[in-house]
Amino acid sequence: MDQERKSILAIAIMAALADGKKDDAERRAIEQFGAESGGDYSSVLMDVMQQKINAQDAAKAISTPEGRKLAYEVATIVCNADGASNAMEAQFLDQLRAALQLGAGEAEVRQQVETMANLPVAASVAGGAAGEAEMDKMILNYAILNGALELMPETLATMAIIPLQMKMVYKIGKSHGFELGREHIRDFIATLGVGLTGQYLEGFARKLLGGVLGALGGRVLGGVGKQAVSSGMSFVTTYALGQAAKRYYAGGRNFEAVKLKELYQSLLNDAKALSGKYAGEIKQKASEIKSGDIMNLVKNG
User: 26-55 burial, b if ≥16 CB within 10 A, otherwise e?
Assistant: First the structure.
C-alpha cells in the first residue's frame, strides 16, 4: 500500500482511539482485526499504538486534495460511530482539519455525519408481532442493503450501515413488545461483541487495502462491478445481528450475556454461508443506490 493510503489508515485508527475512553472490548476488536489482517494494517496499527506517528505527521504525508478530504471524512465518521463526537473527538477533528489544511467547506461533511449519527432509531412498524417468515425477510433485506452499501465507494455509504442495523433491531424489539432506546440497542450490540467504532474502522480498512474508497489522485478507486474486494462482512454481521435480536426479544430478553455472545458467533457462520448465495442481489442493489439517496435510506429505513 502506498504512503498516502497508509497515512489515511493511520488517521482512521487515531480517530477510533480519539475519545480517550474506548472500552477494553472495543480496543481488543481493533487489535484483533490488526492481527487477523496482518500486512499493512497490522504495521500501521502498531505504529499508532506505539505513538511512532501522530496526526500531524500523517497529514503531511497526504499530498493530494482528494486524499486530505478523504482522510477527514473517514476520521469524522469513525469519531461519530457510537453517536455524536464527544469533546475529545471534536478537538481531534478540529486539529486534524488544520493539519490537513482544509477549508471551511469540510464543515458540511461533518454536519452530515453528525446528523446521520443522531437520527432517531425509532422506525415505523406494522401493528402486531410479525410472523417468523416476515421477520426473516426483513432481516435479509437489511443485510442485503448493508452489503450493498459496503460495496459503494462513498464514505457516507459506510456511515449508514450502523444506523440501519440499529433501526433493524428497534423494529425486531418493537414487534415483540419492547420499546427500545438508542442506549439499549448499543448495549445489546456491544454484548454480542460487535464494536461500533471497530466495525467502521474495519470497513474502511478493507476498502483502503482493496482500493475501493473515495477518490485519490483524481481517480475513483474501484467502484461497483469493478473491484468488489469487500469480504461481505456487513451482510454477515447485519444478518447475524438480526437473527440474534429475533431470538433474544422473542425469548423475553432472558439470555445471559455469555449465551448471547455464543449465539451470535454461531449465527455468524450461518450468515457467512448465505453471503455467497446473495452476492448477486447485493451487487445489483449497490448499482441501484444513488449517492444522494443515502441519508434518506437511513431516515426511512
Answer: bbebbeebbeeeeebbeebbebbeeeebeb
| 77 close to 200: Cβ distance less than 8 angstroms | yes
Chain mean pLDDT for the chain: 82
Cβ burial 181-202 (10 Å sphere, 16+ → b, else e)? ebebbbebbbbbbbbbbbbbbb
Cite the DSSP H helix spans in 211-256: 233-250
Cβ atoms of 297 and 148 within 8 Å: the answer is no
**Lookup result for grid cell 458540511:** 108
153-180, pLDDT tens digit by residue?
A: 788 888 899 999 999 999 999 999 999 9
Name the grid cell of 173: 424489539
- Which cell is 279 given? 452476492
Contact (CB, 8 A) for 168 and 142: yes
Spell out the SS3 assignment of 118-134.
Answer: CCCCCCCCCCCCCCHHH
For residue 270, what is the enclosing H or E element?
Answer: helix 257-275
Selection from 8, 2, 1, 7 nearest residue 204 by Cα? 8
Q: Helix 3-17 and helix 39-49: axis angle, to 10°?
A: 50
Burial code (b: 16+ CB inside 10 Å, e: under 16) for 278-301 equals bbebbbebbeebeeeebbebbeeb
Name the one residue in this structure whose C-alpha cell is 477533528: 93
217-232: pLDDT as tens digits: 333 344 433 334 445 8
Q: Is 79 in contact with 93 (CB distance < 8 Å)?
A: yes
Grid cell of 166 as nine digits: 440499529
- Domain edges within the chain: 3-300
**Cell 445489546, residue?**
188
